[in-house]
Amino acid sequence: MGIERVGIVGGGQMGAGIAEVCAKAGIDVTVHEITDVAAAASRARIEKSLAKALERGKLEESARDEALGRLSFGTALGVMHDRQLVVEAVVENEELKQSIFRQLDDTVSAEDAILASNTSSIPIVRIAQATERPESVVGMHFFNPATVMPLVEIVRSVVSSDSAVERAASFASDVLGKTVVHAKDRAGFIVNMLLCPYIADAIRMYEEGFASKEDIDAGMVNGAAYPMGPLTLSDLIGNDTMLAVMESLFEEFRQPRFAPPPLLNRMVEAGQLGRKTGRGFYEY
Prior knowledge:
Helix content is about 45%, strand content about 15%. The chain has helices spanning about 15-25, 35-55, 60-70, 95-105, 125-130, 160-175, 190-205, 215-225, 230-235, 240-255, 260-270; strands at about 5-10, 30, 70-75, 85-90, 115, 135-140, 150-155, 180-185. The protein has an 8-stranded mixed β-sheet with strand order 3-2-1-4-5-6-7-8, sandwiched between helices. β7 (about 150-155), α6 (about 160-175) and β8 (about 180-185) form a beta-alpha-beta unit. About 45% of the residues are buried.
């Protein structure tokens, strides 16, 4: 049976983007947030994104209205009871994710429901073990902004069933129109395993005074044809998210190339998280 009802836990930047992608694809979407204020902010975020798409001619007015009509919001995880796929999209905190999956295990009633995490670095099996159905837990790692970025990493843990993996992959590719890649369950998966050492090296280069941040970014944009430089990218992703991913990678592999640079730690401690706070390596 196809997936027609999706739940998103966490309506922030990533969760709202995933919810919007699903709603535009004709899916009934329920978003969970912790407060009414946060739920309203999530809906406003999606409305703003759809309005931009309409303004740029990428969406018809009727399609926008239909997408908004497919969205609902709630502050209790009980709203997920009838969902066929639930995607958790909260911050990179292992204990928080485990707590959410423990509650989802008690709440989601469909026996064949897929419980997915949008984690960018935490091994899926650690999250799956918080449930009584670890075979139904997979990774579905979308990229920011989910409405634009075409990739979804499907992550299979050592206990994920073939059915859960295949259905999640089929939904991402056939329904959402995403490009799907498959990864085994180790910290960082494919993209962040390759991306984080690159960004860490750029931060160390800047930290050591070897080159200015502008020249580091300009070098990679103009010399390697990257769409943006590594420090700009870190600000876009969120320096706190980058720190969490690097910490997860270093914990898993204990290799110096995965260790977070001291400057990144200091910036996060100072609240310089990038675009979302107005200041990171650059000011916004």
